[in-house]
Design goal:
The protein is of the alpha/beta class. Helix content is 42%, strand content 13%. The chain has a 7-stranded mixed beta sheet with strand order 1-3-2-4-5-6-7, sandwiched between helices. Strand 6, helix 11 and strand 7 form a beta-alpha-beta unit. Its EC number is 3.3.2.-.
């Protein structure tokens, strides 16, 4: 890795659990999960390239895509000599986790949130999401002050605590990270994540907010998963796109239960 990646790591002998944040966010969004898991697990969280305290990518076209991010995450884990890991990925972080199903056999379990597993091509990607202005912001390079406020508030939940770091993370993010990621996501070169969840034997948990305004819940429920935890998509009532931040007292027990099987 030539670019600096900021990594939080509790250390310890527990099973490693890696937390991957969403588009234009940062590792601090997982504060409640880190506090709940530390002691029993070795908890790691990183700032993706172009986000948080990590450097902007020196080769943005190669790095700012879901496969590019996945390779960065794998490099971080390999540098720490981690031989097995369970991943929780939120939104973009979930898509990165899905990429890792095919790339990283040391990942023994995956939980995703706000992440529709979609096939290749713009039309197929659209099936997984609800049409919204937010989708335009997700790939927009230059944010206005209004864009920053809207994106931060919408992604973390309209009724969630909107702490200053959330807005600062959006403002700090390299605009090319959004632009190039979104372009690649819609391109023919993207990964067929729908096929991955239909064929991967790695345990997959899906936990979404019932009020998530961005994802198509019917689409996510309709897929044929190879190894879906509890054989159902879990939906938490009264929360939106970031249930782990909006309602950690309800989300964390689900995460802990998923981790207990490993």
């Amino acid at each position: 890795m030539s670019d600096y990646i900021s990594v939080f790591d509790t250390g310890g002998e527990g099973m490693p659990v890696l937390l991957i944040h969403g588009n234009s966010s940062c590792k601090e969004i997982f504060r409640h999960q880190i506090n709940a898991l530390k002691g029993k697990y070795r908890v790691l969280a990183l700032d993706l390239p172009g986000h948080g305290a990590s450097e902007n990518a020196s080769e943005p076209r190669q790095v700012y895509s879901m496969p590019g991010y996945a390779r960065t995450v794998i490099d971080v884990l390999e540098a720490k000599n981690i031989d097995r890991v369970v991943v929780f990925g939120w939104s973009l972080g979930g898509h990165i986790g899905l990429e890792m199903l095919a790339l990283y056999p040391k990942m023994i379990g995956l939980m995703i949130c706000g992440t529709p597993p979609v096939s290749v091509g713009a039309d197929n990607v659209a099936l997984g999401f609800q049409p919204s202005e937010h989708m335009g912001l997700a790939g927009k390079a230059e944010f206005t002050e209004e864009d920053i406020k809207n994106f931060a508030a919408e992604t973390t939940g309209v009724n969630a605590p909107h702490e200053p770091f959330i807005f600062e993370a959006v403002a700090r993010t390299d605009g090319l990270a959004r632009k190039y990621m979104f372009e690649f996501f819609l391109s023919p070169q993207a990964t067929d994540q729908k096929l991955l969840v239909e064929t991967s034997e790695i345990p997959l948990a899906i936990v979404n907010g019932a009020g998530d305004p961005f994802i198509n819940a019917d689409y996510i429920n309709s897929l044929s998963y190879r190894n879906l935890w509890k054989e159902k998509v879990i939906r938490l009532a009264g929360v939106d796109h970031a249930p782990f931040w909006e309602a950690p007292e309800r989300f964390n027990p689900v995460l802990l239960e998923f981790l207990e099987q490993f």
